[in-house]
Amino acid sequence: MKKNLSLAALALMMLAACNSTSGVKMTESGLDPAKFVSTVNDAPTALYTLKNKAGMEVCITNFGGRIVSIMVPDKDGKMQDVVLGFDSIADYTKYQSDFGAAIGRYANRINRGILVLDGDTIQLPRNGFHTLHGGPKGWQYQVYTAKQIDATTLELTRFSPDGDMKFPGNLTATVTYHLTDDNALDIKYSATTDKKTVINMTNHSYFNLAGNPETTATDNILYVNADNFTPMDRGSMTTGEIITVKDTPMDFTTPKVISQDIDKTDFEQIRFGNGFDHNWVLNTNGDVTKLAAKLTSPISGITMEVYTNEPGIQVYTANFLDGTLTGKKGIVYKKRAAVCLETQHYPDSPNKPQWPTTTLEPGQTYHSECIYKFGVEK
Q1: pLDDT per residue over 161-202, tens digit each?
Q2: What is the C-alpha separation between 327 and 377, in angstroms, rounded?
Q3: Among all residues, which ones are annotated catalytic?
């Protein structure tokens, strides 16, 4: 009982801190911070608000390190919420989703959940046939420890013990969200371990740049700075090949409307992914100053540029949303209501030694960065 009271008191303190930071009871995106005060897995949750001088607002909960809302101006100066999510912790725990989450330990898929390190074979828990996004109880379903540094910066920390989802090593990971005054959300990841392990973190926000998830996002114009991609088999597992995008529906080196090729199921990869759900091999060579991808809504004029030091980016067009999830403001999320742009190492890299490594050794520090920069085209 004392433990429960202590957690409840701590949650209330976090709510007070959140409200004092945001200065209002309700966020600009219409979220009620009180609905995010809860306990999950015996840890307190809350909602944190970041706001810059330009008026952009980002709301994040420490449950799963999830971005709950992003408010940016459209071409007419009207603020739009451009990510999918839920109105409360109750809904985040009720519905299985990756909306907005800081994914760990390993984003994307590991083939059959088999991980081999130094000759030892580890069987990871699987989501279906493969291990996906860290397993059935990955970090998107865990609570991060939160520290709001200032009005524009939130630091989240996650301690993952040795054997968490069977991954080896006591690992401490930090995710720092920083909102700049030029409307960029800079996400930095770092981690250390006491035993050889693998790590591959990402953010799994579902973007609808029109600000209206009742409509599909396939009218968006997409650019991906990648001449190649990693094809997958019918089970959504990378084959180990790297092949050209040229003369295929995967070619976004010239910006094009997503709907142009998304249903060309005569192309095997589109058929396997039920649309786009693939990893592109970026041309940026780890240079975070080079544009990796750009998404534009012709309706709102809102643009989002993506920058990263990662070698790949997963483009997922929400092909498996099926109208069974009701999100913020009572909106039902239907197929292709959003686009995910997940910066990452390639799927199943631990089993593909020819690809950039995801191994982390004791004494090393993992670093990853993703920047989502918003603007408008009138």
Answers
A1: 999 999 999 999 999 999 999 999 999 999 999 999 999 999
A2: 28
A3: 204, 342
Residue 335 burial class via C-beta count within 10 angstroms: exposed 0-12, middle 13-18, buried 19 and up: middle
Contacts of 295 (CB under 8 A, 6+ apart): 207, 209, 220, 221, 222, 223, 303, 304, 306, 339, 341
Give the chain's end-to-end CA distance (angstroms, integer): 57
Q: Model confidence over 200-213: pLDDT tens digits?
A: 999 999 999 999 99
Alpha helices in 23-117 (DSSP H): 89-94
Asked if 246 and 227 touch (Cβ cutoff 8 Å), the reply is yes
- Peptide bond before residue 105 is cis, with ω within 30 degrees of 0: yes
What is the rounded distance in angstroms from the CA atom of residue 325 to the CA atom of residue 330?
9
Is residue 14 within 8 Å of 146, Cβ to Cβ?
yes
Asked if residues 71 and 49 have their Cβ atoms less than 8 Å apart, the reply is no
Per-position DSSP letters for 316-351, written without gaps between them: E--TT--S-EE-GGG-EE-TT--BEEEEESPTTGGG
Contacts for 34 with CB less than 8 Å, ≥ 6 apart: 15
Report the predicted TM-score, pTM, of the whole model to 2 decimal places.
Answer: 0.93
* Residue 167 contacts residue 197 (beta carbons within 8 Å): yes
CB-CB neighbours of 87 under 10 Å: 20
How many other CB atoms are there within 10 angstroms of residue 301's CB atom? 18
Distances (CA, A) of 346 to 36, 52, 73, 124, 235: 33, 33, 33, 18, 16
Largest CA distance in the chain: 64
Of the candidates 53, 50, 55, the residue with the CA atom closest to the CA atom of residue 68: 50
Please report, for residues 144, 174, 213, the alpha-carbon distance to residue 62 in angstroms, rounded to integers and kept in the order given: 5, 12, 24
Residue 169 to residue 365: CA distance in whole angstroms:
13
